[in-house]
Amino acid sequence: MTMPIRSSLPGPGGAAATWTGAACMLSAVLCFTLLDALAKRMVGGASPLFIAWGRYAFSLVPLLLFVPMLYGWRRLATAQPRVQLARGITLIVATASMFAGLRLLPLADAYALSYSAPIVVALVSRYAFAEQLSRRQWTALAIGFAGVLITIRPAFLQAGGAIVFPLMMAASYAIYQVLTRTARRTDDALVCVFYASLVGAVILTAALPVVWSPVPLEYWVSFMAMGALGMIGHWLLAVAANRASPSLLSPLSYVQLAYAALLDLALFGLIPDRWTIAGSAIIVLGGLLLWYPPKARALARVAEGRRSGI
């Protein structure tokens, strides 16, 4: 049975928009998980920065080919170039950090280490957007993070310096989500996707002479798949950011544990242990608590905030 999505911080369009935002977020997470699985297959034979270049370059090409032809170049104009540049830079850091971590870590462990991101997003949203998080929401985030710690119990002790990369990814990606919400105040989803790909492709192309390495044809096919997945995923993420607040969307990224466990098994022959299963169950519990119907006084606070222009 599907549980209705509820929140003490509904999106701009109410319950229907929150439903849409949640569905887009879950679909975006699946795209990113598939993208990272492809990257993990490739990082053993090429630099993470080279793989990140392929991911962004092949996302940008279809945008440059089709969007101007269909809508004209004005369709890609942005009202916030500095915010779009900052989004692109933080996304490069997040992508390269994750790819570097995947050299030594399974997908599920790398994601688990990165799940401090919802805490960062909630904190930044609290001060950047004046969002008031209820005790229930803080409790839900804490429960989810406790589940993460249980899941990564063995990896945390064995990974050594590799754990730094997913943590860098978490911080960068959290800032990227908040910047995306800021950009979506004036720029639509297509514009946000275009500049995320453009900034990544331009900056990494400048570094290409340093990170280039000859790779087989299989890698170029994977680059095309990664480009498509990245473009679709970030479009979905931009749509989600305009339907619900970051502090509500971020915990949905926990579903990557399930996605990653399935891909680890299917592609790399890795079976989740009992700690991963137990931790995942606790993470789900935190997510259910987050969406539990809010108290009337929480709704009143939201209504008051909307009247004051928050």
Description:
With 310 residues, the chain is mainly α. It contains 15 helices and no strands. It has helices at residues 15-42, 48-71, 81-101, 107-113, 117-128, 135-151, 153-158, 164-183, 189-206, 208-211, 217-241, 246-249, 256-268, 274-290, 296-307. Mean pLDDT is 78; it is low at 1-12 and 295-310.
Describe the protein's topology.
Elements: H1 15-42, H2 48-71, H3 81-101, H4 107-113, H5 117-128, H6 135-151, H7 153-158, H8 164-183, H9 189-206, H10 208-211, H11 217-241, H12 246-249, H13 256-268, H14 274-290, H15 296-307
Keywords:
310 residues, mainly alpha, disordered N terminus
Quick rundown:
Helices cover 74% and strands 0% of the residues. By secondary structure, the protein is mainly α.
Report Rg. Answer: 19 Å
> Helical residue percent?
over 70%
- What general outline do the C-alpha atoms trace? globular
How many helical elements?
15
Largest sheet features: none
Name the structural class.
mainly alpha
Give the end-to-end Cα distance, rounded to a whole number of Å. 34 Å
Poorly predicted runs of 5 or more residues = 1-12, 295-310
* N-to-C SSE string, H for helix and E for strand: HHHHHHHHHHHHHHH
Question: Could you give the count of β-strands?
Answer: 0
Average residue-wise pLDDT: 78
Portion of residues in beta strands equals: under 5%
